[in-house]
Amino acid sequence: MPDLILDGEVFTPGSPGYDAIRRPVNAAYREVRPRLVLLCRSVSDVVRALAYATATGERIAPRGGGHCFAGRSSTDGIVLDLSGLDGVSVADERVATIGAGARLGQVYAALHTCGRTLPAGCGPTVGITGLTLGGGIGLLGRMHGLTCDRLVGAQVVLPGGSVVDCDHDREPDLFWALRGAGGGQFGVVTSLRFDTVPEPMTTRIEAHWSDIAFDELVSAWQAWAPQAPDELTVNLTVESEPSAPVRATLFGAATFDEEPTRSLLQELIDRAGVAPTIDVRGGLPYHHLKDTFADPRELPERALRIRSEFFSRAMSHRTLASLLAQLDGPETVGRRQLTFTAMGGAYNRVAEDATAFAHRKERFLLEHIADATDPWVDRSWAAAHADGSGHVYPNFPDPALEDWARGYHAGNYSRLAAVKNAYDPYRFFDFPQAI
Ligand SMILES: Cc1cc2nc3c(=O)[nH]c(=O)nc-3n(C[C@H](O)[C@H](O)[C@H](O)COP(=O)(O)OP(=O)(O)OC[C@H]3O[C@@H](n4cnc5c(N)ncnc54)[C@H](O)[C@@H]3O)c2cc1C
């Protein structure tokens, strides 16, 4: 058995700090008690941790931000906590090297000081690595693509303990697979290199409707938002709660000034036929705009369940009517949310096989979010699935998915299986629905 001496720290049940560090952000997996949590502060720590796990035969789960909806960064074996590797540096005013344990809030703040940013997600505590490995959808994505589309290289510790740098020229198959297959599949990423983009000034958009005919609004959004100019992303949430009217919130960002943004939004409002209360505010650096949005998934005290699917065309009126009828059913027990995220734009200008992320023809993503015990999630997902593309975002893993290989990876699955065989032939990294 190798010694376990780390530059970082080792936490065991009962040791000071164990309870704080063992818990992932996702409340559904807070009771899982790992035998060890290894807080890594160097690449050598990761190598030592993998050697130790190999010798003991225990399952090891890498953890960045700890947000995985399927609990894949939790285990009763060894949690490899990478939060001690969270440096961000920028070279040549453009290429950022980011430690695998950094979270989005840190990344945006550090890049902002250099006038740069990344098209990445919203939640400030979401890990940059988990997000990037599964794709990375955000408010600048229709203009600049997925977070993984900006990845130019990564350092990875492989199951046997070797440390490799991968990019377009070195270990190209691994580099291809890291861009969209989902986290924890091939090795432990220790750092990521990104080609950043200039941080834009943005206009913040928020609008609210309540007590209206929501099918008109959702139809209008489906026809309009996925093909709006790339500079504008607006997402729509429709939510219900017991004893409250159903309400809808439009939230998003434009890299246009305030006036052109208002004119564009008027097109959507005219199509929907009902005016909202609306707040459009220009002149915000992107980094500040992100801080002004509360994420509907960021409710740490509630165990949430999320199911989702991509759509390559607008829903039929029949499907939409059934979806909305269920949202506001008489047996509503807690808050239920349908969140529509606009795709199109730069997301769709990359070939399906250019990276592991296969979902390049989709118009929007729909999430069904409720308390973990609410059976509505399955009913609502099934109602929408009638018109869905059958494709599912790897960053929203769904244990209930039947054909998960096609759902997450579509036509890229066989190449991913070959990469898995080459880099992790003994399935050192394994979990339900692993490649
Ligand atoms: C509040 C909230 C907001 C979100 N917002 C967005 C959004 O705006 N856009 C979007 O696209 N997605 C969003 N997501 C989904 C998010 O992208 C995924 O949950 C993602 O997997 C989270 O990564 P993490 O590092 O925080 O989670 P973790 O649970 O730490 O990791 C996720 C997966 O990656 C693996 N992993 C982590 N680090 C490494 C590593 N260094 N090497 C190898 N594997 C690793 C883990 O083992 C696990 O399988 C959101 C989720 C939440 C909960």
Characterise the protein shown here:
With 435 residues, this protein is α+β, with helices and mostly antiparallel strands. It folds into 3 domains: 9-81, Uridine Diphospho-n-acetylenolpyruvylglucosamine Reductase, domain 2; 88-199 and 411-423, Uridine Diphospho-n-acetylenolpyruvylglucosamine Reductase, domain 3, CATH 3.30.465.10; 201-409, Vanillyl-alcohol Oxidase, Chain A, domain 3 (3-Layer(aba) Sandwich), CATH 3.40.462. Helices cover 27% and strands 25% of the residues. Strands 15-12-14-13-17-18-16 form a 7-stranded antiparallel sheet. A 5-stranded antiparallel sheet has the order 5-6-10-8-9. The protein is globular, with a radius of gyration of 21 Å. The model has no long low-confidence stretch (mean pLDDT 95). The structure holds flavin-adenine dinucleotide. Flavin-adenine dinucleotide binds at residues 61-69, 72-73, 82, 100, 121-123, 126-127, 129-131, 133-138, 183-184, 188-189, 295, 297-298, 395.
Entry keywords:
435 residues; alpha+beta; Uridine Diphospho-n-acetylenolpyruvylglucosamine Reductase, domain 3; Vanillyl-alcohol Oxidase, Chain A, domain 3; 3 domains; 7-stranded antiparallel sheet; 5-stranded antiparallel sheet; binds flavin-adenine dinucleotide
